[in-house]
Amino acid sequence: MPIAWATAWRTWQMTRRAYPWTYAVGTVLPAALTIALAHLGFHVIGGGAVGDDFAAGSGTTAYLAYIVVGTTAFHFAVRLILWSAKALITEQRQGTLGALLIAPAGRLPYLLGFTGFAVLSSVLEFLTLGLVVAALGITVPVSSVPGALLGALALIAAVFALSVGLGGLMIAAGEAHISQNTVFIMLGLVGGFTFPRDYLPEPVRWFAELLPTTSAMDVLHGSFTGGQSLPELLPRLAVCAALTCAHLFLGLTCLPRAEARAVERTY
Amino acid sequence: MTMTTAIEVRGLRKDFPVREKGILGPRTLKRAVDGLDLDIPRGRVTGLLGLNGAGKTTTIKILATLLRPSAGTVRIDGLDAVADARAVRRRINLIAGGERMVYTRMTGRENLWYFGQLYDVPKADLRRRTGELLDLVGLSGAADTMVERYSRGMTQRLAIARGLVNRPDYLLLDEPTLGLDAPIARDLRRVVADLAAHDGTGVLLTSHYLAEVEELCGHVYVISAGRHLAQGSPAELKAATGSHRTVRLTVTDPTERTRAAADAFGATRETLPDGGELITLRHPGDMAGPLTAAVFEAGGSIGGLEIAEASLEDAILTLAERGEAGLAGPGSGRPDATTIRPGAATAPPEAATAPPEAATVPPGAGTAPSEAAAAGVKGGTP
Ligand SMILES: Nc1ncnc2c1ncn2[C@@H]1O[C@H](COP(=O)(O)OP(=O)(O)OP(=O)(O)O)[C@@H](O)[C@H]1O
Ligand SMILES: [Mg+2]
User: Fold this and answer.
1) B102 within 8 A of A99, measured Cβ to Cβ
2) Which ligand sits nearest to residue B55's alpha carbon?
3) From A45, A59, A146, A162, which residue has the greatest number of CB atoms within 10 Å?
4) Is the CATH code 3.30.70.1150 the one for domain B245-308?
C-alpha cells in the first residue's frame, strides 16, 4: 500500500507547513464546548437527573457520559469527512486533479491515505478532550473494551465509506460547502450521536438505518454507557459492516463518473 | 504482445453537455471534436494545430484518459483508452502549459517523489530519476524549495519534470511552452526533440508558436471546429496551401536585358520612384540565388535583396479560412529555412523595411528556421 502511505505522508507534510496549531484548537473546542454546555444544562437546569424516556432510549442514566461519547464521535466523524471527502475537490482547486487522474494509481489507496492521516491527527487532537472531560469530573463507564475498539473502527470505516461517495458528489457538483454541511446536519440529527433515535419520527428512523454510521454509533454507545457485552454488540456490528461495504461499493462505482464529470465541467 | 506501437485515433467525437441559460436552461450538446482520425507513432513529434476552440485540448484530454470519448476509439499500443485506462496511463503522460499540476506546499523534489509513487516507479530508480529530471529542467538548485516560492516559469518547469517521471512511451504536450521565457522554451524543445529521436517517444504537440511546431514536428494535423482539415509535414502543408516564399530584388539600373531575365522567372516588375525596379518572385522553392544570378549576369546592379520565408502560420490561416479538407500529394522536401549569404555586404535601406513577419537575422545566428529573413546583397556591374 505504498500509495496510501505516500499520500498520508504527503498530507502530513503539507498540513504541518500550512496549518497553525490554532487549527487543532478550533476543531477540539466545539466538542469541548458542547460537553461543557451539556454539563451545565444537566446540573443547573435538569437538576442532575435524566428523564425516563432518555433512559429508556439510551439504556443509561449516565447522560453526560453518553454526551461525551456522542459528541466526541460526531466531531471525529466531521474531521474525517472534512479530510477524506474533500480530498479530491481540494486537488481540483489546487489545479492538481488532472495530474492525479492521469496517474495509474487507484483511488482507494489514495483516499485511504487521507483517512489514515486524518485518523492519526484527529486522535492526537481529541486526546486533549480527555482533559476537558476529566476537569468536569465526568466518568465514562466502559462495559466492553473490545466492543469500544471495534465500534471506533466501525465508525471510521463507515465515515470513510460515506466520504467516498460524498467526495465524488463534491467534484461532480464543483461544490463542497453545501454538500458537507448537509451531511453534517443530517448526521447530527438522525445519526444517533448525541441523543437516542427514539425521539425521531418513524420514517426518519428508517432513513437513519441506511447510514452505516448509525449502527456504528449503536455499537459505541452500547459498549460505553449501554452496558452491553461484545456478543450483544455483534449484530449491530454486522449491520454496520454490510452497510459500509454497500456504501463503499456504490461510492467507488460512481467515482469514475464523478471524476469524468469534474473534468468536463472545468475548461 | 501489442499489435501496433502507436496511438491510433479513429472517428473520435466528443460532445459536451452545455446549458444555455443558467442551470435551468435547455441542455444542448456542444460538439468539440467531430470524427478525428490521428496516428501518433513512436519516435516522432506529431503536431496538432488549429485556431482557438478547434478542439486540441479536448482531443489531448481524451488521449490522456481524462475525458471519455462520445464516439470513436483511441488505442495506445493496441490498448483501449477507456477499457484499459489503467494500463494506458502507465505509458503516457501529459504536460499542459495552462495547468499547474504540481503541489505548491511541497518542494520540487517531494513533488517528483510523490508522483513517482503514483506511477509506481521502483524505489531504487526514483531517487536517481528525480535528480536527473530536476537537473534536466534546471531546478537542481531549487529542489528543496517549496513550490509556492517558485516563479511561474519554475513551476512550469517542475510540471514538465512531473510529466517525464514515468518515462512515458507517449508524451502529450498541450502548449507546453506557454509562459516560458525563450531560453527555457528552447531547452524544452531540445528535450522533446531528443526524446523522440533517441528514446523513441511518441509526442503529440499543440502549440500556438508555429515556429516551434515547424522546428519539431515531422507530421502535423490541422483541425478546425473539431474536424480534420489537413495533414502533412510542415513543408507539405505550406506547399499545399500555396504558401510561397517571396523574393524581392531591387535593380538600380534596369535594362531590357534585366527585364527579360526577370520575366523568364515569371517575376513581376514594378518601377520605383528613383528609377530603379523592384522584381518580386513568389515561388515554393529557393529562387533567390538563381534570380539574382540571372539579373546580375544580365548586367543589372543589385540594390537590395529580401527573402520572406513562407510561414506555417500563413498556411494554417489559409487552411482555417478555406476550411477545406484534403491535400495534394506530397510536396517537395522541406525547404531550408533561411537563406543568408555569407558574403552579404551592408544592407541597403530597402532591406530595413521588412514586411511585418520578416525578421532580420544576423549571419551565423543558428536559430530555429525563422519565418522570415531578410538579407541584403549589393552587386556591381560586370
Ligand atoms: N468542458 C467543456 N464543456 C463545454 N464545452 C467545452 C468544454 N471544453 C471545451 N469546450 C468547447 O469545445 C471547443 C474546443 O475546445 P478546446 O479547449 O478543445 O479547444 P482548443 O483547440 O484547445 O483551443 P485553444 O487553442 O484556445 O486552447 C470549444 O468551443 C470549447 O468552448
Ligand atoms: Mg487548448
Assistant:
1) yes
2) 1
3) A162
4) yes
